[in-house]
Specification:
single chain; 383 residues; alpha+beta; Butyryl-Coa Dehydrogenase, subunit A, domain 1; Butyryl-CoA Dehydrogenase, subunit A, domain 2; Butyryl-CoA Dehydrogenase, subunit A, domain 3; 7-stranded mixed beta sheet; 7 strands; 12% strand; globular
């Protein structure tokens, strides 16, 4: 029997306490914890969106959202990497059938970081390409078996898939937030990439490819950026829920210095707690609403430019709301919450970092939405 959505959510919920306990170690090691990655694989979570053809659950976006929220509420950095690994199996399904056989036919899934910025130099040679370059922000590279990178070529944009043995990891990830992701640079030094490991970059981003045509499920022909928005939105709402949980624990136990007053007995603490609880509930509802919008479009019609701009705006609003709410929680929590042993400050740093991502930059996105309302062409490539 295939693994069900309920089983995947329950497994994520069961793993969450151990993930939370390992979060300080992940941050110190500057990469996801080995035991956590192994446990997520064993639970079939990281392979949940692999097509059923390869013996996988072929789950759906609402289930992925619920799973990622659970993991991110335990550790934002771990939730980020888990969401990438889950989603990038969909990206692998956009490559050729021959590459899918290499990846899915061998292991049944991939742990594949991806770089969308076209930073690679690629030269056409017999049977493929010689590829060199550096890709930053390699989230997932520390446990990768494959990577995909992007480049501009004389034949147009291309996406290249390489086994991790063909790349080099440059240890540059020294961050105050999202430190536990290990998002180091991917360096390629004149690697040969055969044609079956290369796909058209325009098609890859737009959605339908020769690889995705193997599947009736429209998920595998979905445009890249709306899929990416669905991937990460649960990291934001889940991370805020985890931070709120940590704040609730502080309020329950906190006694103020000098006065000795018990915080949980004070009216202003009740007001602050209510405000922050509502912020967290709204973040979840907004995030779930994005998933519902995408699901409705995915199973009814192609994504339009209006859809893509609106979804980008929706995610950017969630991100800004989560950032503001995380800062409000930290402001209400007291100076002792900045101690390195307190989970609250790690959530705060991680959420402020992830909410700064270029894909949902608040200023850029507001401008794009405004231009769209006026009938003007987009003036930014990330749409």
């Amino acid at each position: 029997m295939p693994t069900t959505s309920d089983q995947l959510r329950e497994r994520a919920r069961a793993l969450a306490p151990a993930i939370a306990a390992r979060a300080p170690d992940a941050e110190r090691q500057r990469k996801p914890h080995n035991e956590t990655i192994a446990a997520l694989v064993e639970a079939e979570i990281l392979q949940m969106l692999v097509p059923a053809r390869w013996g996988a659950p072929e789950s759906d976006l609402p289930t992925m959202f619920g799973v990622v929220e659970e993991i991110s509420a335990a550790c934002v950095s771990t939730g980020w990497i888990a969401s990438f690994y889950i989603n990038h199996n969909v990206y692998a399904a956009k490559f050729s059938e021959a590459l899918q056989q290499e990846i899915f036919g061998t292991r049944g899934f991939t742990l594949m970081p991806g770089a969308n910025s076209p930073t690679m130099n690629a030269v056409r040679v017999e049977g493929g390409w010689r590829v060199s370059g550096r890709a930053s922000w390699g989230s997932g590279v520390m446990h990768a078996d494959w990577v995909y990178v992007s480049g501009l070529t004389t034949e147009g944009p291309r996406a290249f898939a390489l086994p991790v043995a063909d790349v080099r990891v440059d240890d540059v990830w020294h961050m105050t937030g999202m430190a536990g992701t290990g998002s180091n640079d991917i360096v390629i030094d004149d690697a040969f990439v055969p044609d079956h490991r290369v796909t058209n970059g325009v098609e890859f981003r737009a959605g339908p490819t020769a690889g995705s045509a193997l599947y009736a499920n429209p998920l595998y022909s979905m445009p890249q950026l709306p899929l990416a928005y669905c991937t990460v939105v649960g990291v934001l709402s889940g991370g805020l829920a985890g931070m709120m949980r940590a704040y609730r624990d502080i309020v329950t136990k906190r006694v103020r210095n000098f006065s000795g007053s018990v915080v949980k007995d004070q009216q202003h603490a009740h007001v602050a707690l209510g405000d922050l609880e509502l912020r967290t509930m709204i973040a979840h509802d907004l995030a779930r609403g994005l998933i519902e919008k995408v699901e409705s479009i995915l199973h009814s019609r192609p994504f339009t430019l209006d859809d893509r701009v609106a979804l980008k705006g929706h995610l950017a609003f969630v991100s800004q709301h989560v950032r503001d709410s995380a800062n409000a929680i930290m402001a209400a929590a007291g100076a002792s919450s900045f101690h390195v042993d307190q989970p609250l400050q790690r959530f705060w740093r991680d959420l402020n970092t992830v909410c700064s991502h270029a894909f949902w930059d608040w200023d850029t996105t507001r401008e794009l939405v405004g231009r769209q309302q006026l009938g003007l062409e987009p003036n930014h490539p990330l749409v």
